[in-house]
Amino acid sequence: MIAMDIKQKSLELKQKLIDSLSVWADDRITAFANGNPKLKTISVYLKRGANNIIKKYDNEIGKMIENAMIFIADENGNYNLNILFDDIMSMFKNMEEIPVNLGPMTITIGKGAIRIPIQKNAFTSILLGKDIGAIRITESDFVELKNILTNGL
Q1: How far apart are CA 11 and CA 51, in angstroms?
Q2: Residue 115 to residue 33: CA distance in whole angstroms
Q3: What is the spatial distance between Cα 39 and Cα 52, in angstroms, rounded to a whole number?
Q4: Are 64 and 28 in contact (CB under 8 A)?
């Protein structure tokens, strides 16, 4: 019975995380595009890309959550999302930066941020008009994700 409780809670958390990530990514891209009018047009494609990446890694996210729940949840599958999020952010801030390959791009995760490098080339110059270097997702962005997760969509 205990394994079923954890399995069910894992599935519920995965779905909540997937849904929250989609809303959060959409909001982050909108905010980024609002800061650069040239990105308004491509923000639709960036949102599709973010959504497709989330969907692509759906199974991996589910497996990761199910494995983590063995350590996170109590014997009834219960957990405290606020404490969990704060603990993860603490570990995230202290972890060394590591590259993560996401197919067409490699991002850097660690030191409390995710850095998404934007290659300087003719395409990005036309779209952006300048070299923006990288998009950084920081603790304040993750707090927004936490709020979506804990307060609902």
Answers
A1: 19
A2: 17
A3: 19
A4: no
